[in-house]
């Protein structure tokens, strides 16, 4: 068990080194050698834990997206909230992760770009986006109290929410104007409401 924990710790250390590299450089310029150097490993030492560049990126994506999902789900667990407050808090948290954390946005952009070149990376990214979509769809259903709208309509609103958050984050990263987060949240929540 102790050996397994050491391996997990070393893998996390290497993944953090990859994140730092992606904060500075574009994914296509980040090599196993540069990650190894950043992590304080030899290239062979890094390959012991991640034999290929693809495996290293898969581990990064899983780590990155799993943490976002755990944080987003965990933010409302154990809180006595009505559905409006729950929708507001989960939406706010999504905005915080994608819009305000510029390091995460740069890593996310790099992952998306790499996904255009590698089917395995694209598939893992697609799974995250779908899980995130399902989380928003559930929030929308809760907010609407399972009104007369169909599942496909709720999913459509959830997708629009994802698009707004992702592109708001990308645009704000590239050309910041300090978007008023509460106003953006209010705008998004208006889409959830039914009369």
What secondary-structure arrangement, pairings included, does this model have?
Layout: H1 2-24, H2 32-39, H3 43-49, H4 53-74, H5 83-100, H6 102-115, H7 119-144, H8 151-174, H9 181-192
Helix pairs in contact: 1-2, 1-4, 2-3, 4-5, 4-7, 5-7, 5-8, 5-9, 6-7, 7-8
Reported by name, the CATH topology of the largest domain is Tetracycline Repressor, domain 2
Q: Calculate the terminal CA-CA distance, rounded to whole Å.
A: 56 Å
Q: Which whole number gives the mean pLDDT? A: 82
Order of helices and strands: HHHHHHHHH
The geometry reads as elongated
User: Rounded to an integer, what's the Rg over CA atoms?
Assistant: 19 Å
Number of domains: 2
The CATH class label of the largest domain is Mainly Alpha
The strand count comes to 0
Q: Give a quick account of the main beta sheet: strands, pairing sense, barrel closure.
A: none
Helix percent reads over 70%
Structural class: mainly alpha
- How many separate helices? 9
Low-confidence stretches: none
Strand content: under 5%
CATH superfamily of the largest domain: Tetracycline Repressor, domain 2
């Amino acid at each position: 068990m102790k050996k397994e924990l050491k391996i997990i710790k070393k893998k996390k250390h290497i993944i953090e080194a990859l994140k730092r590299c992606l904060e500075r450089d574009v994914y296509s310029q980040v090599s196993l050698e540069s990650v190894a150097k950043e992590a304080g490993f030899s290239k062979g030492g890094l390959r012991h834990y991640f034999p290929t560049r693809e495996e290293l990126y898969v581990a990064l994506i899983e780590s990155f997206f799993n943490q976002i999902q755990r944080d987003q789900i965990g933010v409302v667990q154990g809180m006595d909230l009505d559905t409006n407050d729950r929708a507001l808090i989960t939406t706010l948290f999504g905005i915080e992760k994608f819009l305000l954390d510029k390091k995460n946005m740069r890593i996310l952009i790099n992952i998306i770009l790499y996904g255009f070149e590698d089917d395995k990376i694209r598939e893992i990214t697609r799974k995250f986006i779908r899980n995130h979509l399902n989380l928003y769809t559930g929030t929308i259903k809760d907010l609407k109290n399972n009104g007369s709208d169909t599942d496909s309509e709720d999913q459509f609103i959830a997708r629009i929410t994802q698009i707004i958050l992702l592109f708001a984050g990308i645009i704000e990263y590239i050309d910041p104007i300090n978007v008023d987060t509460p106003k953006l949240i209010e705008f998004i929540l208006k889409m959830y409401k039914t009369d």
